[in-house]
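Protocol step 6 of 9: fold each sequence in the batch and record its structure tokens directly after the sequence line. For illustration, a two-sequence batch is reproduced in full.

Sequence one:
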Amino acid sequence: MAGRHRRNALRRPGAAIRVWLSHHGRSALASLGDLARARLATAMTVAVVGIALALPAGLHLATRNLSVVAQGWQENTALSLFLAPNLDSAKATALAEQLRHRPDLAGVRVITPAEGLAELGEASGLAGAVGLLAENPLPTVLALEPTPVLAADPAAMEALRDTLAAVPDVADARLDTAWVQRVQAILDLGATAALMLAALLAAAVLLVVGNTLRLEVANRRREVELMALGGGTHAFARRAFLYAGAWYGLMGGLVAVIVVTLGVALVQSPVSRLATLYGTEFRLAWLDASALLALLVGGPLLGLIGAWLAVGRHLAACEPR
């Protein structure tokens, strides 16, 4: 009678799903309890997984912060026009006014020979020696500030330089972008290194979790054999170990988030002092939603995959002969 009532209950809509969820919930909590009882071993495995996940996440965050700095440098890229020697100030002002009407330029500043000489003396620390010159050798310079859209396109900046270099009364045009391109190449290298490191450490997480659970299966061999004698399937026996792998990954992901967050908090103060010395202000970016999702979802997924790869074969070896 009781068995018939149970079968009828399982035929109700959603009843089988509720039973399935109940079984998995109990397995998840039971595996978490097993990890809690082996605190030291669990803590060591979680620490290794957390460090393995934190390293690529930290490198990615560092590259992202440096990209923000490089973008600011690129937006401040200037194009300097050195006008012909002995060009009178009226013609220089007229040329500057003409260039201000270009839609691809955000600003034009006229640097007279006297202002250029003063800036040179201040920058070099030789203001006294510069003041002793009998004649000012510097020409008038037009400092051009491109729009952000133009500054983000190196090819367009070079084309603009070539165009303005051919303007009458312009002796030379200099574009200060080579060092920005070098910085961008370094950042691209850092991003590639972060991806490679992430792939290597993801494999390391799979191996660590898999090896840990392989040893756990060996330690619980007698329990697995008794479960098989009682009619327990491989799927039922494997379920607890799969949840253990997911717990390892989730806790490792949380450790990685804490490590990276603490690292940013510790570095923020020195970075702020360094930015102040350069007359600016810079706040480090924290882990964004996509990075948090990658750690808190990718960690359990890696743990689950590592457990699946390691546990299935070793459970088959535990079948009673």
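Sequence two, same batch, same settings:
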Amino acid sequence: MSASTPVRPTLPVDILARKGGAPLVCLTAYTTPVARLSDPHCDVVLVGDSLGMVLHGLPSTIGVTMEMMILHGKAVMRGITNAMPVIDMPFGSYEEGPEQAFRNASRLMMETGMPAVKLEGGVHMHDTIAFLTARGVPVMAHIGLTPQSVNTLGGYKVVGRADEGARVMADAEAVQAAGAFSVVLEKTPEGLSRRITQTLTIPTIGIGAGVGCDGQILVIDDMLGLFTDFRPKFVKRYANLGEAASDAIADYAAEVRARAFPGPEHSFPDE
């Protein structure tokens, strides 16, 4: 009797084939337990450099290192069976040129087992994306609001209004021509996102970009309401776990201070 064939995980070619089909469901994950929870429901699980802000308390993604991405990438891979995992290339790991990008992308893939990387930038990243894809590194592109460029953009604002629309469209066409298998559109006007989606032959994945994209992605902590002091305007909260956790911690603290916990049912006999 032959051994059973293992289930093949989702790969970039599968995501590319979803263009114009059922919407792609994508979430971020940074830990093994969250990856396991997301895996049965998602097409893509992204280890985003947003982990710097979400988990490490950094003011932006600029301070995220390769070592941080590798640590969390390994953790997420332990929880993935079906969805396609993708890992962000952190700031400073690819902007210098194609050769630097390949060294760091290949390191991310080899040390984590991730099948694809994501990097930010459009027209100016064409040569880098082409260099990576020609050497076996699948690339998910990211245009519109690019958080690693927040200092030059002047904040986390909508990108693509008025005259900016043509530039964002050019970015989208450039990353497709370079060989990216999909592209994230962040905080672009819905009409522009829809035009880009209709123009490209690769899937578009929106975040704050309206409903006209081929898929949607959210930072899972935003979606679950784990933050009590910040809420992106475009995010629908499907839970308020931050408030629930805060209440639970407060209840626990009150019981301990009142010496009401642990109670007799939790005590141990004297030795």
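Proceed to step 7 once all outputs are recorded. Observation for sequence two: The two ends are 56 Å apart (CA to CA).
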